[in-house]
# Entry
Amino acid sequence: MSLGQALRQLRKQKGLTLAELADRTDSYVGNLSRIERNVAKPSLDLLYRIAEALGYTMADIFSISEASKDHRDPKQVALNTIFIALLEQDRELLLEFARLLQERAQKNISDITVDAKPLPVAHEQPADQDNDDPRGDGIPPSATD
# Structure
């Protein structure tokens, strides 16, 4: 993914228009549009202002931009993009969830159990049920038969 494409993706993820980003960065819509279309390259100063306006570090932006050049999985790039957009506490939750998934992946599927009582089979009568209620509906047989 190019730098311009990364900037466009991050801007849209924040729900900003080019006009709003231009206002926040003291730039022009046309200038930002050319950068996002890879017709122009931003100055280091403008790139810093864009990163600040979007709430990212320049390292975050470059990591997204460079990710596809390494032929990484597009899902990994998308996950990284989402991760850097999260609040710090949500990042911690996502990391904890990823660790749980990793632990699960390392276990044999037959080792995974769930503590649950088996449901009674329809033709079996639970031990604590009276014989006065053979259907288990709380209505004595004489009332409906």
Remarks:
- The first helix runs from residue 3 to 13.
- DSSP finds eight helices and no strands in the chain.
- Helices lie at 3-13, 18-25, 29-36, 44-54, 58-67, 74-85, 88-106, 141-144.
